[in-house]
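Notebook p. 47: complex prediction with nicotinamide-adenine-dinucleotide.
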Amino acid sequence: MNKFDFKGRVAIVTGAARGLGLVITERLLDGGAAVSMWDMDRAGLDAEARRLGAKGKIHTAVVDVVDELQVNSATKAALAYLASPGRCAGAGNIRSRNGAR
Ligand SMILES: NC(=O)c1ccc[n+]([C@@H]2O[C@H](COP(=O)([O-])OP(=O)(O)OC[C@H]3O[C@@H](n4cnc5c(N)ncnc54)[C@H](O)[C@@H]3O)[C@@H](O)[C@H]2O)c1
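Predicted complex, structure tokens below:
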């Protein structure tokens, strides 16, 4: 599998507890990024962060991405834990509260 070089990068991945977001998270970690995993599913986040823990530095946040206050607060927490601001890359997937994709 191709490996990308994300060393020194910080990524925020939404919908990271499963599916595409989880796959993206693992690829970023494999490439050397530190990753903040965001999802509404606390149990899923905890389980996957434990499973992936040996691959790199991980931060988790329970966030509903349609809520601006939650997003702002989680962004601050992620950057405080993982990096200095200005070295952040975002990747992920979002589903709105009404289920539309
Ligand atoms: N799976 C595919 O083949 C595919 C292809 C093209 C596009 N997409 C799109 O990519 C996105 C993800 O697909 P998937 O298959 O990984 O979905 P999934 O349902 O398996 O996972 C989505 C994750 O996002 C989380 N989530 C949903 N709404 C959220 C919110 N408001 N805030 C925070 N977390 C939230 C869920 O808890 C879940 O863990 C969707 O928008 C989908 O339409 C998927």
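Notes: The beta strands are 10-14, 34-39, 58-62, 88-92. The pocket of nicotinamide-adenine-dinucleotide is lined by residues 14-15, 17-21, 39-41, 44, 63-66, 93, 95, 97, 101 (CB under 6 Å).
Next step: compare against the earlier run before touching the bench.
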